[in-house]
Amino acid sequence: MMTDTTSVQTLKKNAAGFPSLLGQSVAMIAPLGAVAATLTGAAEFAVGSLPLAYIISIFGVLVWINTPYQFSKKINGTGGFYTFNAVGVSPTYGLIIGYMMWFSYFNVITNAILFTSGVFIPGTVSYFLHVNIGTYTWIPIMTVFIALITYIAYIGIRPSLAYSFTASVIEILLLIISSIIIIIKAGPANSALPFTPIPAHGWSPIFVGMVLAIFSMSGSSAVVTLGEEAQQPRKNIKRALLISFLITGVVFVLTSYALTIGWGISNMSTFFQSSVPGLIVSDKYIGLPFTIVLFAFIINSLFAGSLAPLNTSSRMIFSMSRDGLGPRFLSKVHPKYKTPYTSILFVAGLSYAISLLAGIFLTPAIGFLYLISASSAALFIGHILSNVGVGVAYKKMKEFNALLHGFAPAVATVILAIAIYYSFVPPAYPVDYSIITAAIFVIATTIGVFIYRRNHPERVNNAGKTDIEVQSTIK
Predict the structure, then answer these.
(1) CA dihedral sign, ordered 194, 198, 203, 209
(2) Cis ω for the linkage preceding 335 (within 30 of 0)
(3) Can you tell me the distance from the alpha carbon of 96 to that of 108, in angstroms, rounded to the nearest whole number?
(4) What parts of the chain have a pLDDT lower than 50?
(5) How much is the pLDDT for 308?
(6) Alpha carbon separation from 108 to 46, 102, 118, 307 (Å, rounded)
(7) Which residues pair with 55 in a beta bridge?
(8) Which residues, at least 6 apart from 351, have a Cβ–Cβ distance to it below 8 Å?
(9) Do the beta carbons of residue 310 and residue 108 sit within 8 Å?
């Protein structure tokens, strides 16, 4: 039975053109912020082999984004992976993946705001000004930070995307320019050694680092949740996915190499402990004025990189709730701004609470690693299930291609499985606890979905339908 779309609350149609979608993809990756946060976390494990971890990650992300790329050719909607799998495979399958991917994107917000307020800003002030701003000063900083991104998300998708696009262009340029200067000034320190497993003393730490390296480049897939608001979604979303990956993949390899050489290959074991290694290398090779500019734009990048997942996760929970598979109050659309304002406020408030607890009980630095690892684990599992889903969906449509819908998703699954395995072997605190947390969430959600389906099969069968019916009205 079709829904009367005139009675359904919908988001603002045709609000996002290709540049805006590309900006959302790059902003979710948050290149400068990822260099300050995720790349630094990856270096904790891969040490002097960090560029090698990123090269492996490029191949992993390439086959990784094939799945949302293939899905977005046929299916679009606010639910993203939820809609893909609910419509392409089965409602139950889609609902499980929907909550799994929501958990992942939600924890992008939590780790980003905690890192910014509790690690990056205090670390910068301490290193450059030799001032300790206090044990709990990060709490009011984080409060202001989350309030600002919530306001921008609340007032409309266009301001969010315009800001994201501008910020993304500046970030890419700054990373390229600074990396080239560092490499040139490093002179004889340049070496091919960072592209081998020798500095890491084996492959195991490289694969653990690869978990975070892949995560730092994987955000482009978040653009799929803008299907309802995009212009020509079937064309522009897949273009934004591919182009954002190509740009950021090259930039991350270049930057990881420049920072490894700049810091010193044999000294990379101290890279993470320094809190702000990118700024330290910048100050050493380029100078304080440029480093101050870089600091400002890193904050800006972390801001955009928190805003993007807030837009994504709020739209996912909005989509599921609009289908009757989440709290009804989260399915409301603002009458003026046409944003899912109740879900934005809910996600922002919950992310603030989780970040606060993680920072207080684990310390901001450990809390950041815990939250980002939990997010990446859920993301990997969700993508593995979606890799299966894309093959099933195209077989149902009788358009199955062995390379695109069989081989590529299988390779992506193997890479992700290896990454998850090496996250456990050997155990590395707090990553191992993070993966356990993500696994508990996935198992609990799956059990909950099956219980709900047994009691309300007609509601679960509606999964993804509203997105598709609304999409059919978009030219």
Answers:
(1) negative
(2) no
(3) 19
(4) 1-6
(5) 86
(6) 22, 10, 15, 10
(7) none
(8) 106, 107, 109, 110, 113, 146, 310
(9) no
What are the C-alpha distances in Å from 62 to residues 58, 214, 231, 286?
A: 6, 10, 25, 33
* Residue 56, both tokens: 């492996």
Q: What is the CA radius of gyration of the chain?
A: 21
Token pair 């976390």 is found at 41
Q: Enumerate residues 6+ apart whose C-beta is below 8 A from 418.
A: 207
**If you average pLDDT over every residue of the chain, what do you get?**
89
Q: Hey, what are 434's tokens?
A: 């993070």
Tokens 């992700």 map to which residue? 416
Residue 321, token pair as written in the block: 């709730």
Token pair of 225 as six digits: 């949740």
Token pair for 462? 């509606």
Token pair listed for 164: 């994201």
Find, among 275, 296, 51, 58, the residue nearest to 171 by Cα: 296
Taking alpha carbons only, the member of 178, 116, 128 closest to residue 355 is 116
The CATH T-level fold of domain 11-471 is Amino acid/polyamine transporter I (1.20.1740)
User: Could you tell me the two tokens for 373?
Assistant: 């690892």
Amino acid of residue 385:
L
Token pair belonging to 232: 């020509």
Structure tokens at 8: 């359904």
Give the C-alpha separation, 276 to 330, whole Å: 38
Q: How far apart are CA 148 and CA 234, in angstroms?
A: 32
Judge contact between 182 and 262, C-beta under 8 A: yes
Q: What is the pTM of this model?
A: 0.86
Which residues, listed in sequence order, are joined to residue 230 by a DSSP beta bridge?
Answer: 16
Return the pLDDT at 263: 96
Q: Which residues pair with 16 in a beta bridge?
A: 230
Q: Are 417 and 210 in contact (CB under 8 A)?
A: no
Query: What pLDDT, on a 0 to 100 scale, did the predictor assign at position 179?
Result: 96
> What HEC string does the chain produce?
CCCCHHHCCCCCCCCECHHHHHHHHHHHHCHHHHHHCHHHHHHHHHHHHHHHHHHHHHHHHHHHCHHHHHHHHHCCCCCCHHHHHHHHCCHHHHHHHHHHHHHHHHHHHHHHHHHHHHHHHHHHHHHHHCCCCCCCCHHHHHHHHHHHHHHHHHCCHHHHHHHHHHHHHHHHHHHHHHHHHHHHHHHHHCCCHHHCCCCCCCCHHHHHHHHHHHHHHHHHHHHHHHCCCECCHHHHHHHHHHHHHHHHHHHHHHHHHHHHHHHCHHHHHHCHHHCCHHHHHHHHHCCHHHHHHHHHHHHHHHHHHHHHHHHHHHHHHHHHHHCCCCCHHHHCCCCCCCCCHHHHHHHHHHHHHHHHHHHHHHCHHHHHHHHHHHHHHHHHHHHHHHHHHHHHHHHHCCCCCHHHHHHHHHHHHHHHHHHHHHHHCCCCCCHHHHHHHHHHHHHHHHHHHHHHHHHCHHHHCCCCHHHHHHHCCCC
